[in-house]
Amino acid sequence: MTHPATPPRQQQFASDNYAGMCPNAARWFQEATASGHEPAYGDDGWTQRVSEALRELFQTDCDIYFVFNGTAANSLALASLCQSYHSVICTSVAHIETDECGGPEFFSNGSKLLVAEADSAAGRLGKLTPDAVEAMVTKRSDIHYPKPKVVSLTQATELGTVYTVEEVRAIAAIAKRRHLKVHMDGARFANAVATLGCQPSDITWRAGVDVLCFGGTKNGLPVGEAVVFFDRALSVDFAWRVKQAGQLASKMRFISAPWLGLLENDTWLANARHANAMAQRLHAAIRDLAGVQVLHEPRANAVFARLPPPAVTALRAKGWRFYEFIAGGGCRFMCAWDTTPESVDAFAADIAAALPG
Amino acid sequence: MTHPATPPRQQQFASDNYAGMCPNAARWFQEATASGHEPAYGDDGWTQRVSEALRELFQTDCDIYFVFNGTAANSLALASLCQSYHSVICTSVAHIETDECGGPEFFSNGSKLLVAEADSAAGRLGKLTPDAVEAMVTKRSDIHYPKPKVVSLTQATELGTVYTVEEVRAIAAIAKRRHLKVHMDGARFANAVATLGCQPSDITWRAGVDVLCFGGTKNGLPVGEAVVFFDRALSVDFAWRVKQAGQLASKMRFISAPWLGLLENDTWLANARHANAMAQRLHAAIRDLAGVQVLHEPRANAVFARLPPPAVTALRAKGWRFYEFIAGGGCRFMCAWDTTPESVDAFAADIAAALPG
Amino acid sequence: MTHPATPPRQQQFASDNYAGMCPNAARWFQEATASGHEPAYGDDGWTQRVSEALRELFQTDCDIYFVFNGTAANSLALASLCQSYHSVICTSVAHIETDECGGPEFFSNGSKLLVAEADSAAGRLGKLTPDAVEAMVTKRSDIHYPKPKVVSLTQATELGTVYTVEEVRAIAAIAKRRHLKVHMDGARFANAVATLGCQPSDITWRAGVDVLCFGGTKNGLPVGEAVVFFDRALSVDFAWRVKQAGQLASKMRFISAPWLGLLENDTWLANARHANAMAQRLHAAIRDLAGVQVLHEPRANAVFARLPPPAVTALRAKGWRFYEFIAGGGCRFMCAWDTTPESVDAFAADIAAALPG
Amino acid sequence: MTHPATPPRQQQFASDNYAGMCPNAARWFQEATASGHEPAYGDDGWTQRVSEALRELFQTDCDIYFVFNGTAANSLALASLCQSYHSVICTSVAHIETDECGGPEFFSNGSKLLVAEADSAAGRLGKLTPDAVEAMVTKRSDIHYPKPKVVSLTQATELGTVYTVEEVRAIAAIAKRRHLKVHMDGARFANAVATLGCQPSDITWRAGVDVLCFGGTKNGLPVGEAVVFFDRALSVDFAWRVKQAGQLASKMRFISAPWLGLLENDTWLANARHANAMAQRLHAAIRDLAGVQVLHEPRANAVFARLPPPAVTALRAKGWRFYEFIAGGGCRFMCAWDTTPESVDAFAADIAAALPG
Prior knowledge:
4 copies of one chain form a homotetramer. In chain A, 40% of the residues lie in helices and 15% in strands. The termini of chain A are far apart. By secondary structure, chain A is of the alpha/beta class. In chain A, helix 2 (45-58) runs parallel beside helix 11 (253-263) and helix 13 (309-317) crosses helix 14 (341-354). Chains A, B, C, D: It comes from Sphaerotilus mobilis.
């Protein structure tokens, strides 16, 4: 077997997990590699340190667990909030509903996801509203239907939009009144904080969020997410749940140490700001092109736009990769912590060139 | 936050997952880090390459999936072999029975583990026998008891012993006759191959094994195991199972690329041979010490021995870490791919010094 | 404690399980009561006899299991057709989707129900169509979404309509082409057969149905449904599944013997015909009343109609019970095997009297 | 199909669920049959009445649910007391361990049953002891093993013995100290009360039991058990659990009304006393026979005895049915509410005749 150096590949706009590990994370990963023998299962020094650092970041004494990916983080968090005969209110575009292959239903042994009505201005931006939550929770109360127990928000949303602090608070208020727990899928939590310019606490526990799945992978880690319980009563025996569910890393330091790289000097925020800025750059470059219909103002690190089908074909032929979610040319262009201005400009130029006329 | 260089720690004999990442794995991890954008979820080049390399290693066209850890590998493999009302025959010391927090029961939605009688020479060495399997499978056949569907072997065993090729074959033969599938927990598969000096195929598919969980972590990876289906009919839709169960890495290359480091130049085998040799070295150094009772000849990378309790206390006081599994001084001393002869010698010297008289 | 004779209550149109046990079923229940000691768990003579009688009725050598209720019948049947990472295509009004509290998801450990588009003439009648199935099965084929594995039809539907033989055949044909199994929720199967005037086999195995849940309770039993596997390969080890799931009656004869009462002299069909006729009688009596809008022609034993809200209130005040499913006065009036013409006429008269003008 | 009167069969000693429905239960079943239309799912008058009567019997304001059988009662009760990563301490002969086909593991999504050491005087009588519970709960406390959360007692035990009030109290005291909940499998609860001559409350909530599964079937019902929560905080949303798990009877009155027959005039206690007396009668008749070795004094409605294998064969040849649980001739002879003295005498005479010499 040979060991050739692979040349860096063309940057893509398909997903922010096409990007690799950011240099700061890599530096700590390297240190974990060099350290020799370490206690397993999280009894090492890095894991303790990063937990402390996260508590500091969130300005509260929260409970923190590290798991391997977002499906696991969301599914285990939801399973800790509801029993099999309960249900979770979310949007129709929620990742837990559309892209985790029934993970939440599996880990909870059957909890149903209740998709809230999307036919409103907020719904079209991928957001829940207090009214939509209220409508779902009051629709049925008989024992023949799973009892709503959780509201799940994605922040930033799957459509590249961001809940304001007030929006989170309003939903959490309804949730509390209806005895629902509030889960936040924060696969792109950093991007939302970067956009809002707020403290992480402002859109989590201070606004009424009980559990946050804080995404590390899309922000620059090789692997790993953090489950952050602000309501510590909800994390009783969660360590056993993580172990049983195959989410406890034996060599935990390789999962936890790179988090120190994200957290030192607010690298996580810098990474997110950069990705967001690249989305703005792309948006600015294409929004006025004839034939391009931007679906909504980008607020995080993605641009959603409709292109003529021949343009899509032409772009693919040039090697560009991106997802089409919506019939008739709706495309998602996703930027990452490492997306370069040059790549954005090249992509925008190719979009312009691909358009008719 | 400061970024100090942590000094390498004292080597330990507690677990082979105290060891870090081996240099060859690290080299490929580094390449995956440097490569820039890569398709996610396994559509990258490394994942394809390592799958090919594993098929070559096993000399057959097997189906291969990468998951995060051993609990997940074993639990998902077993879940693919049996339904909730089926059962799995294993030993009383099997890792799936004693150390996965009910993971197999969870992923299979309730399959029961049937612990075979350990009161035999083989049983005391942590091994199943054809007779023990036969006894379990014929004990009950009514619908009030979970129907046996799988035999699970651990190779090398949890007691540091190794099934011979003939032993695996004999158990698999009974299994086939009784319509049981054969699962091999290979968390230390490499150590068994190193001991036997056989081909990997000799103790797997050629001997009748249907699915192998091939351990990478203990062999020198930072994270990750491979599930290898020799009977490809058993892996139908397994990719969906992996995804739903939160075991599909988005940035898969960081999980798969280091495997190339293990596989090139048979590093996996060299790593295992070294660990085994260190166990032999430790065994040779302590077996004749008065007060030490080695429980059985080490065949893989662990020594099991009884020490006087004061000696155990004295060793712990000197900072040595190891597990005691058995009442009255039974200790497990585990060696890893990176255990140095110097560490072994220092540990053996401290054992000698800790003994009375 | 006293033991007063309760006077028979006013008949209701809320549900066909408000009705009790039909006389023929009661006669056999009584015989099971009188017989003294009998082997448990289905090894009694009645259970064998009724299985034989059902095979005769369906004109094929099917596998038959008796369970306690419809939720269990449907959930266990579906669980035998799909794994946790698979999905089931059904309508938005399917009982498995709306009224089993997540039972299918629970028993299958997470299988998702995919609700097919209802916006078509058939959809508005509570029916799936080949096109709707095709659309669902081709919508996604990636591993991030549960793979469709089953189509579930309700016959008669939850809206009191009935699939024709041709409609069942057409859906089953698409299912076969797409490698989906076909499940039929037959809680009111008898009512559908009565309407179609066909053989039970015509709308089941001859049309491509793999498993039927044949409802006994609504047809006149005190408790119990039959799960009928036409594809016997799908029922492997189903007896273990039933036992583990808490659905195996110890004194099975009390569940199975009354089925003999339904089957002898085609009582099941007579019961269904009577219930259907009562729905027709009610329909005829109210369809032309000003202020009543019948939603669609009744084909089984229910009439769906919109009434002015004050009329609904007035009817409830007179002690009538029925369900309102649809905002603005949509009501379901359900007839049973024991609904009397006098009750229908009295109810229709009260409806007429409750209407304005 | 003909409708012959089946002659009452020879009484058997295989199981107390070979017996049918007792006359008092039958009388109320008949009333439920005769009453015409009734609300479904437990909103009928009988269900309310029997719940009240049970609260009176237990002298406390407990929460009561009716399910179809013992597997469901035990499994749902246990699932409400523990999560998938918890465990349940029980004996090696516990019905939940040996005869429910993994039902508890299934409904709890993976909770492990921990079998306590049986090698003690109490263990040989099928009983847990405080020491055995303490040993299990202190054996492991790491996250790699399911955390003990419940102690499950069977009262009367599977070996026909009975916990005294003091024994239950002592186990419950340890349980409380170790934060374990106490579940009682009361499939033959009535037989235990009859033996002890105590109030039902004395061996349940007054002694520290949290949840009782009160067996109706073996006591004379056609189908049905009651789950009685003395700690009402544990039954939150249990109605949803019952529905989802396929255990909510639509025509609930047929399940609940017969309970009124058991409860009026303490029929349940009379039935149990009779069954117990028949076991005493059989015991008296055979205990001194040469060749018969009674294993222990019967305390409930079963006699356990070793017979020479040829005697077992001879008895079977005469048509007698009973179970052999233990190698070498250990037989279980079970009496029921309807076992006649004549049957006991005939069976004892045949045993005597079957013995050598």
